[in-house]
Design goal:
four-stranded parallel β-sheet; 5 helices; alpha/beta
């Protein structure tokens, strides 16, 4: 069974520990990129990453999003929602289905 982890600033991710997810609070982009790599190579099947951190390390996120595992999923943080997570879900649906099935969201 695969493990689930969450990476981002402490305030945004600490609640995920209550539901049993492994949390990795990071303070900067370099630390975030290193933790993402460690988790991806450490048997984690799903890695949630805050949108703010993902915006700081787009190449690393893109590298793992192109792989089958782990699934890297963007989530909003406590400091706001950039819409990047929804955009990634929409893109994934478009790739899977072959067209945009979400109408009126633009």
């Amino acid at each position: 069974m695969y493990k689930v982890a969450v990476i981002g600033d402490y305030d945004s991710i600490y609640g995920f520990a209550a539901v049993g997810f492994h949390t990795e609070p990071v303070e900067n982009a370099d630390e975030g990129e290193e933790k993402l790599r460690e988790l991806a190579e450490g048997g984690y099947g799903i890695i949630y990453i805050t949108e703010a951190l993902a915006a700081q390390i787009p190449e690393a996120v893109a590298f793992y999003r192109e792989r089958q595992l782990p699934a890297v999923i963007l989530i909003p943080g406590v400091y706001g929602n950039t819409g990047a997570g929804i955009a990634q879900v929409k893109k994934s649906v478009e790739q899977a289905v072959g067209s945009d099935i979400i109408f009126g969201t633009e």
